[in-house]
C-alpha cells in the first residue's frame, strides 16, 4: 500500500489506524482481497473473499447492500478507506462472524467517546426473500401432486362405472379408514382420492394458490411439508373423529400456517412482514369461524386443524431461513420439541384408543 494512502485513512480513522503494524495488517488483508492488485476491490473480489471465509454462498442482494452501505463514491468498488470502514463496522462483524473474527482477532479498537450500546441490524436487504422467488426446475412438486389427484379421481370414476362399484376400487384401496389403521399407507394415500369434483378442485386450487409461491423459494421442502400435513391431519382425525377420510385438504391447510412460519424465519428479509403475518392470521381466523358456522358432517375439520398445526411446527424446522438469528435458533428447537411431542402423543392415542362400533368397522 502507498504510504500516502495509509496516511489519508489514518487521518480519517485515527482510532483504527493508529500505528504502523496496524496499517500493515489492514494493508495485507486488503491485498489478499484485491486479487488483481489494482488498488481497489470489486464486488466480485469481495464476494469471493468473504465466501471463502464464511463457507457459504452469498446472495447477490447481500453484496449489493454492502456496496450501497460502504461504497461512498458509488463507483461499485471499495478503496482502502472504504474497506477499513467496512470491516470495522459492528454491522459487518455481526453479519460475517467467521470473516471478522479472522481479521479482527489481533485488533483492539479503543472505546474512545463510547456511548451506550446500540442495536444494529445485520446486512440484510429488505425484500431479499422476494428476490429468491424464482422459477426452478425442482419447483414442480405441487403440480405433479395435483395432476395425480385429478387423474386418479377420473380413473376411479371410470372403474366405478365399469365395475358397478359403489365408490370405486382406487377409492376403496387408498382412502383412510381408522378400522384399517394397521394398513399404515392409508395415513398418506387418502390424499389422492376425493368424494366429488367440487371437493377435488377446491383442494387443488387452494394448494396451488397457497403453495406455488412457497415452492418457488423453498422447492422440494414444500411437497415434504404437504405430505407431513396430510399425515398429521390423518392422525388428528383418527384420534378425535375416527371416521373414514379422503382428500388432500390437510396438506393444503398446512400451507396457511407455512406462510406464517416463513414470516417468522425471514422477518428481516421480507418486505412488509407484519402485513403478511396479519393477513394470514386473519385468513386463518376467518376460515375457523366459517368452519364453526357452516359445520358439516362431510367435512373433517380436525384434519384441517391437524394439517395447520403440522404446517407451522414442521414449517419452522424445514423451510429456508435466509439469515439465521439466535432467536430463530431457539424457535427452531422449541418447534422441533413440540412437533415431536405432538406426533408421539397422537401415535400413542391412535394405538390405544378403542375403535368405534360403527358401520365403518363392521
Automatic annotation (TrEMBL):
Membrane topology, from the record: Multi-pass membrane protein
Top-level division of the source organism's lineage: Eukaryota
Cellular component, GO, one term: membrane
Signal peptide: none
Keyword Transmembrane carried by entry: yes
Alphabetical list of PROSITE patterns matching this protein: EF_HAND_1 (PS00018), EF_HAND_2 (PS50222)
Residues forming coiled coils: none
Localization per record: Membrane
Entry keywords, A to Z: Calcium, Membrane, Transmembrane, Transmembrane helix
Span of domain EF-hand: 21-56, 58-93
InterPro entries (UniProt xref): EF-hand-dom_pair, EF_Hand_1_Ca_BS, EF_hand_dom, Peptidase_S54_rhomboid_dom, Rhomboid-like_sf, Rhomboid_IM_Serine_Proteases
Protein's UniProt name: EF-hand domain-containing protein
Native species: Phaedon cochleariae
